Amino acid sequence: MASLRGLSRPARSLPLSQLSRQTYTAGSIRCASSQADLSDLEDSTLTAPQLGPDEKKEFRPWKRAADRKVRLPSGRYQFHPPKYNRGPLHPVQSPPASDPIARDFVPGPFNMPRLKQTYQSTIASDLMTLAYTHVPPGTPQKESPARLRGWDGSSPYHKNRALRGPRGSAVLPLIERDVTFNNIPEITEVTISTYVPAAIKDPDHLLVARSVVLSLTGTTPDITKTKSNVAQWGIKIGDRAGVKSTVYGNAAYEFLDRCVHLVFPRIKDWRGIRATTGDRAGNLAFGLSPDEVKLFPEVEANYWMYPAKMLPGCKVFIKTSATSDRQARLLLQSFGVPFYGDV
Known about the structure:
Distance between the termini: 90 Å
Protein name: Ribosomal protein L5 domain-containing protein
CATH class of the domain at 187-340: Alpha Beta
Number of strands: 7
GO biological process, one term: translation
CATH architecture of the domain at 187-340: 2-Layer Sandwich
Domain Large ribosomal subunit protein uL5 N-terminal: 183-236
Helix content: 25-40%
Organism: Chaetomium fimeti
Number of helices: 12
Strand order of the largest sheet: 2-3-1-6-5
Structural class: alpha+beta
Order of helices and strands: HHHHHHHEHEEHEEHHEHE
Family: Belongs to the universal ribosomal protein uL5 family.
């Protein structure tokens, strides 16, 4: 009875045959821990005797697990993260992205790009210094102009109506925020796209363009389709005439590193990127001709694989976390990207 009281409640409900085995195991462990001589417990498992061929046939852990009547509670040991996040007040929350059981878990990083390491050690602090604007204490704040237009009240329907957007544009531009320690601009993604209308008549052009973009990014590019008809070029809506690929994180920094240190210095009589580029939201773009694309080491090493007349040019879109084109240009200039022209 003393041995039965020492067992857990689920073990008391087992049959006598299984109970005897578990009692013997628990008793042997209890006796071993109470002995003064613990030399047997200090032996390594590598020196334990190996199982014979007959014992290996009888050793079936899957059958032992199937015959086990007492199982582990599923709520604690078989947790599945929720598929949808239902708000911060919901009792079931998703684990953080750093947890291996999270749905958005990404292992790594396994390497640190040189350009990103330079950004974290030098450029980030320099950007805060370059973008700092000193305001003496007591300076009155300037009133920012209204971004939305009101109604003149000439009609009774103007009452309680929503304000209108700016004149000439239905989209509100982003407000440029000051660079502080918690919103330093950085590169988020880089998209490489190419347009080859000759692929409509000769699909080999599309194959070459896809191979080039694949070698530049290391990811399988997506095929893009035309969205309008051009009768002069024989283009119809839905024709496959281009490819694009997007890289994120370390891959984006590595691609920009190759552009700055391996491609741009080898372009003859290249003035740089036009300073007027940008979408007023911190995203810049520039283009590369076929002669400039072949300067990438991935293409140059296997240049014999690509037909010379089928090598396409490409457009590079750099998306940053900046809130204005001015901050994005300042970020790329610190990386070594040259700009020319008046802003």
